[in-house]
Amino acid sequence: MIYVFLHKFWKKRIMAKNKQYLRNKGGNAGYRGNPNADGQNQEDDDDTLVDIVEVKEHAQDFFERNQNTVIGFLAIAVLLAGAFLAYKYGYQAPRETASMEAIHKAEFQFKQDSFALALSNPGEGYEGFLEIIDNYSGTPVANLSNYYAGISYLNLGNYDVAIEYLNDYSANDDVTPITKSGALGDAHAELGNMDAAMSNYKKAVSSDNAFLTPYYLNKLAILSMSQNDNATALSSFERIEKDYPQSAEAKDAAKYVPLLGK
Q1: Options 3.40.50.2000, 1.25.40.10, 3.10.20.310, 3.90.1150.10; which CATH number does 103-260 get?
Q2: What is the pLDDT of residues 1-20, one digit of tens each?
């Protein structure tokens, strides 16, 4: 296969050289005015053809000497491609389908605020978030279950574990990066880690969401006041007033801005 490719490649190069030679012969004023030009051009072209043939022969010789190595690499590539397809469609795809079916009941319990049940015993033989994380690791549903588990533990008052699961969650949409950072801020605040709480609230408000951003700006402002950081509190309330005047948090912001601005 490689030899056939090289053969076609050099054939095209030879044809291109011949065409170039004919163009030079027909359109070059120096050629018409120089009786020795034709002989010189023919000699140069012959040298070029000899070089091309030599390179072609070297390429063919290289392939013949390394034929087993080349074929070995091709065989490895085929095996790797086959293994990848077998893993993706024969193993991973069925697991992803099964995980989507498994999470149904746990999500239902989560929406009912039955966080303990959602974690480990959602009912009707379904798996809870913790089992889904273990049984379907590497799937998008297992990743989402880390988020659900973190929020569940946060609501159950188990803040250290909540932080662990939230940190294991990889957010890849427009909303959960905000709520993940906000939930981490809540958990750290409950544990008294105020610097970490502030840092996570600031991450939460770095995005623009009409509902979530003013909510976490208000939390950031309140926490900042408790830490005597009135400058951060004021800027947070002012941002609520300016960017989210229709939000529920705008009323509190309107009360605090005059006080903090003095």
Answers
A1: 1.25.40.10
A2: 444 443 444 445 445 544 55
